[in-house]
Design a protein that fits this description.
The structure is a homodimer of 211-residue chains.
Chain A (H helix, E strand, L loop, with lengths): L9 H19 L4 E2 L1 H8 L3 H9 L11 E2 H12 L5 E6 L3 H7 L2 H5 L2 E8 L8 E2 L2 E5 L3 H8 L3 E4 L3 H13 L4 E4 L12 E4 L2 H13 L3
Parallel strand pairs in A: 3-4, 3-7, 4-6, 7-8, 8-9
Antiparallel strand pairs in A: 1-2, 5-6
Helix pairs in contact in A: 1-2, 1-4, 2-3
């Protein structure tokens, strides 16, 4: 892997994450090599796109022989930064927070929930799997002690910006928010928002404008 | 609104959905006009991008006067196809399905959950808000009767492709899947996948490659 250019489009990273899933499936089935065409078909894209996405990060595979499945898995994991586990805190133990705390897809990809927080006394002390919900007032001291790298916010919209400010002040540089609210963070913090309604709106658009 | 070109990038639709959220906030605060610069600042983009996104769909706003908040809300709702409600079924009443069934953001945007399904006898008959979980075997007859336009799949990965095939055969043309599995659908079906792990992987990438 060589140093990638400064601005890789998010769509490229998203496709790499998808290729990684398919490669892991191929590996589980005992397949040792894969062509860009096979990867493209699984991902609903073109082989030229697969080759272009990978070319940002180095030279992979051999002309006419395709990619070694194991090698390409290792390379994409390195590109995405998944060779080591990432400690994550979940803030908000409502329905979405609870679903995420038990989402198997996180731990299998190396994202380890090291803490879960809520300010509701009825929720503090509840257990989700092996995680006990702690008082949100403990957040700053816990962040200082356990250094989670990513905070997942599952708090109500009206509490979301205040919580972004708190975790940023405590030193967290990556935030994933499920609150349907516009949020601001400093330039050196990566802030992503997942909005379930937006996903449905994109479908509504495609249904409305279908031929 | 004029007829948009055949291929509008998903990122454009995603931004329109975001602008709509900000516009509704502006309206709630009593603001009657907004500049492309204000919309751009809220959305973390540029005013040129705001004007370009809107220009695909017609001519909005007046030079020097900005956009009328109410008018632009109506126009974007029309573009996204949100002037009428969309009936939605949720398939899978596990943790994510249950969280989505009670997600207020859906109904406030016009997405109405008209049915919820599971094949687990322990879940059939359970109520989430006003929705009772029905036997997944009833799915085809219910789709024929109630004509949901969008199916949200919250089933395990190994069941996901089979369920896609079933709802497609029953006539559903838009699917949102939360299963972390590669899925295929015919070209005339819009299939979107939300993968929580991918969202964290994009953050891991940005943390790994931060200056």
């Amino acid at each position: 892997m060589h140093l990638p250019p400064k601005h890789i489009a998010e769509s490229t990273i998203r496709r790499l994450s998808l290729y990684l899933r398919f490669l892991e499936e191929f590996e589980a089935r005992g397949q040792t090599t894969v062509s860009s065409g096979e990867l493209a078909r699984s991902g609903g894209t073109t082989s030229a796109q697969v080759r272009k996405d990978l070319s940002f990060f180095g030279s992979f595979g051999k002309r006419g022989l395709g990619y070694g499945v194991k090698d390409l898995i290792a390379s994409i994991r390195e590109i995405l930064g998944l060779e080591h586990p990432w400690p994550v805190v979940i803030i908000g133990a409502g329905k979405i927070g609870a679903a995420l705390a038990q989402y198997r897809g996180f731990s299998t990809r190396g994202f380890h929930v090291v803490g879960m927080y809520d300010s509701d006394p009825a929720k503090i002390g509840t257990m989700f799997g092996t995680i006990t919900v702690r008082d949100a007032r403990e957040l700053e001291q816990d962040i200082a002690a356990r250094a989670p790298r990513i905070a997942v916010l599952c708090v109500p919209s009206e509490a979301a910006q205040g919580m972004v400010d708190r975790v940023v002040a405590a030193g967290v540089k990556a935030i994933l928010s499920f609150a349907p609210a516009p949020l601001q963070a400093p330039d050196d913090v990566s802030l992503r928002a997942v909005n379930m309604a937006t996903e449905l709106e994109i479908l509504a658009y495609s249904l409305t404008h279908a031929k």
